[in-house]
Amino acid sequence: MSKHILLVDDDELLRRSLAYNLEQAGYIITAATSAEAAFDNMQQLKPDLILLDIGLPGMDGLEALARFKQQFAVPVIFLTARRRELDEILGLELGADDYITKPFNTDVLLAHIKAVLRRSTPDNSSQQEAEAEPIRVGDLLIDPTAHTLHVDTRPIELAPREFELLYTLAENAGQVVSTDELLKRVWGSEYEGESQVVYVHIRWLREKIEDNPSEPERLVTVRGVGYKLISVDKGK
Q: Does domain 4-120 have CATH number 1.10.760.10?
């Protein structure tokens, strides 16, 4: 069945061009000129994915993103014409599943759409995780079956991507895993070069597993190479 994409952008030419290209790629497209119009139709539309522009009239994209994430379980790709790193970080922190900066190549956007839809659709990876054994790294206990993390018996709540990132590092505990390798294994090969995504999620993880996130002891940076999860047991 074709996936349904809701495109929210006030640029008429871009909307028409994107809608045409995405329909040619096999998607069902509904377009909205504002966040307010999109919200009015969400219950009826029930899209599989939202393409959301940041520079919207009325309610802007950042506010709309936060509301979408609060009310609807649907992945969001953030479209931004602002070439500021702050926008990208804010978008990720508010819950965007991905972002892409205008102007963009349609093939690149299609690759990002496929990657986000693939991650949001259950597949055989769930079964593989269910068969995997818990991993202990120092006082961290990571259970892929229950998708839980305990730090010295204290339960820590992680978002799905945070858990995947930590589990990948735990599988290679004590070894450096490059940023490129983390992108490929956690996000997919389509994210080559999108190192900012890794940086943001590493920061979130440190805020949850480190006593002092600014001076990490468990999840350390190997400058110029990548990241390493180290065995630390504060309970001893």
A: no
